[in-house]
Amino acid sequence: VLAVCHFSTQIGFAHKIQPHNISALWPTGAILFSVLVVAPVRHWWLYIPAAYFTSVINDAQAGFPIAAIWFIVAGLGEILLAAVGVRRFADGARAFVSLRGLIGYLGIAVVLAPFLSAFVGAVPGRLESYWFYWRAWFWSEALAFLVLAPAILTWIGSVGTTIREFTLAKWLEAAVILCGLIAICVWVFASPTAHAATIPALVYLPLPLLLWATMRFGPMGVNTCLVVLAFSSISGTVHGLGPFAAGEPDKSVLALQFFLAAVSIPLMLLAALIKEGSDKSISFRESELQLQEQRTELTHLSRVAVLGELTGALAHELNQPLTAILSNAQAAQRFLAHNPANLPEVYEILNDIVVEDKRAGEVIRRLRALLKKGEIQLQALDVNEIVDDVFELAHFECASRGVKIERELEASLPAVRGDRVQLQQVILNLIVNACDAMRNCELKDRTICLATSQADDGMVLVSITDCGHGIPAELGDRLFDPFFTTKEQGLGLGLTICRSIVAAHGGKLWAANNVPSGATFHLSLPAVGGDGS
Amino acid sequence: MNSDAGKVYVVDDDEGVRKALARLLRAAGFEVKCFSSAAEYLEHDDRSVAGCLLLDVAMPGISGLDLQDALAISGHERAIVFITGHGDIPKSVRAMKAGAIDFLTKPFDDEKVLAAVRVAIEKDASARRLRKLRNSAEQRLATLTPREREVLEHVISGKLNKQIAADLGTVEKTVKVHRGRVMSKFGVESVAELVRIAEQAGIAPVGNH
Q1: Using one digit for the tens of pLDDT, what is the confidence trace for A319-361?
Q2: Phi/psi of residue A238, each to 5°?
Q3: What are the φ and ψ backbone dihedral angles of A487, each rounded to 5 degrees?
Q4: What is d(CA A513, CA A409) in angstroms, rounded to the nearest whole number?
Q5: CA-based nearest residue to B116, from B79, B171, B165, B75
Q6: Chain B residues 103-142 with CB within 8 Å of chain A
Q7: Strand, helix or coil at B8?
Q8: Which of B144, B137, B150, B157 lies closest to B205, judged by CA?
Q9: Pairwise pLDDT comparison (B66 vs B140), residue with the higher score
Q10: pTM reported for the whole predicted model
C-alpha cells in the first residue's frame, strides 16, 4: 500500500495543471479508500499512515505549510466517510454488481464525501478563490472515486473468481478491447489539438469500445476501460494535447471532468444492470434445477416406500425359484444315486434349474430397476410390457392378500414416450392402493383388473379397477392432494406423486367410482406419433 | 418303498415349486399327485386314498389355512405339512393348533420335508386304522338288540351276571344268554377284548351308583 500510494502521489503531482496547481483526478485518496473498503477494520490503522507517508514527507520538505494540514484533514475525513458509508450502505466491494449498490456508492463516495470534504479542503484557498478551490477539490476527488476506486475494487473482487474462469477466447477479446481502446485514446488525446469542429466526433470515438467492454465484461470491464480513458485524457490534456487542451487550463479541466463523469456514470449503471439481470437468471436456473432434483428425490422415495410395502411379497418372489432350485437339485442327487441312475430325469431337472435361476435373476433385475435412483430416461415404451412387468412384481403381494389380479390388455397399442420406471411406479402404487381398498371385502370379491386400451383421441389408456368400497363422494379430487391419506400409516404423497409423474408425461390421472361397487383409476398417456406427441 | 402307505398330495400355485417337490418326493419313493390350487384339490379329493397333504400357505383364492379348516369341517382330515414363503408366526401357530404336522419355511432341505412327509403319512395311516376299527365296532354294535346292548354296557363296567340280572330285573340265566350272544356278535372270546372294542365304538360303561 505504501509503495502504491507513493507512486500514485508522484503521478498525481506530475499531472497537476498549472498555474493553479490543481489536479483533474487525485488518485491517492481513491487507492486508500479501495483498500479500506476491502480490508478488515482492525487493519485500518496500518494502511492510513502508509498511504499518507509520501505526502507527509513532501510536506515536511516544504516546511509543513498550513495548507497541507487542511488537505490531510479533508482527505482523511473524506476517505473515512466514503469507506464506512460504502461498507455499510452499498455492499462494499460488491457495490458495482447491483443497481442499488451502485447508486449507494455514487451517492456516498462520489457525491457526498467529496462535497463535504471540499469545504475543508478549500480553506487554504482563502476567501477570494474559496469556491474555485472548492470546485477543484470536489471534482478531482469525485472523479477519482468514480473512475479509479471502482476499477481497483472490481479487480480485487474478481481476481481468483471471474478471471480464473476466463477462456482463451475471452482473454483475447479483452486484449483486443484494451489495445483498441489504448490506440484510440492515444490517437484522440495525445494528438496535437484538433480543430474545434471535430472535437465532439473525436470525443465519442472510444465509446463503442467502452460499450463492448460493458456488455461482455460487466463492471470489471467497464471500470478498467474507464481508468484507461481517464488517465489518457488527463495525461493528454495536462501535456496540452487532445480536444480538451484547446481552451484555458482550468476551463478545459472542468470540461474534461464533465466528459469523464458523463461517460462513466451511464456505462457503470448499464454494467450493473446487465450483471444484476444475468445473476438473477443464473439463480433462477439454479433454483429450477434444485426443484427438479428434489422432485426426483421425492419420486424415488415414494417408489421405495411403495416397494417397502411389497417386501414380504418380493422375498417370496425370490424364495419360490430358490425353493424349486434346491428341491430340484436334491431330487437330482437322489436320481443319480439310484441304480441305474435316472439320467433323463436329471437332464430335465437341470433344464428346470436353469429356468428357475433365470426367474430369480429377473426378480432382482426388476427390483433393481425400480430402486435405482436414475435420471429420467424418456423412450418409446410398450404400455402392455410395463403392465406385465408390474403384474409380475405385484401378483404375489395380491395373492397373499387374497386378491385376484387379472389383465385385459389390448393388443397392438401404439407406443408412448416416457420413463419406464416412473410409469411402473404409478401402476404399482395404484395396485397397492386397490389392494388396500379391498381389505374389508369378501374374499371372493377381491379382484383387480388391469386393462389397457386406446381412446378415440389417440391417447393410450391404462385402467386399474378394484371391487372395493369406492371413493366416498365427499373426497372427490382431494385424493390427489399432498398429505391427504386415508391409511393409518400413509404419508399421503403416493397419489400426488403419481399425478405429477403422469402430468410430466403429458398425460392425465383421474379416478371414478363404478356401479355397483369399486373404483377405477384411469391413466391416459399421449401416443408417440399420435395427437399428443 | 412308501407307495403302499399313501400318496403325497402337493398343493402349490407355483408350477416350478410344485414340479420340483413332486420330483424330490418321487425320487424318495413316494407316489405324488399335484394340484395348482386348493379348489382343484377339493374337487379331486378321494377320501378312500391314504396319504398326506404338502400344502402351500399363501395361494390366491382359498389359502392353505382355509383348506385346512374346510377339511376339518367336512370331517375328512388329512395330515398336513405346510410350506410357506415367509415364516409368519401367527399363521404357523394357527396351523399347528389345528393339527398340522409341520410348518416348513421355503426353501427347505430335502431331509426335513421328507421326514415331515413320512410322519404325516404315518399319522394318516394310523388315523385310518383307528377309523376302520371304530367303523367295524360300530357296525357290530348296530346288530345288537336293545337288551343285548344294555347287557353289554353292564358287562364292560365289570359287573357279575348276578348283579346285572338284579339291575335289569331279570334272572341270571337270561343275562348269561344275552352275554353269550354279544360275545359271538363281536367275535370275541374274552371280556377284556369286548371292553377294548366297546371303547373303540365309543360305548361308555354304566356307572356304579
Answers
A1: 889 999 999 999 999 999 988 888 889 999 999 999 999 989 9
A2: -60, -40
A3: -95, 150
A4: 21
A5: B79
A6: 106-110, 113
A7: strand
A8: B157
A9: B66
A10: 0.52
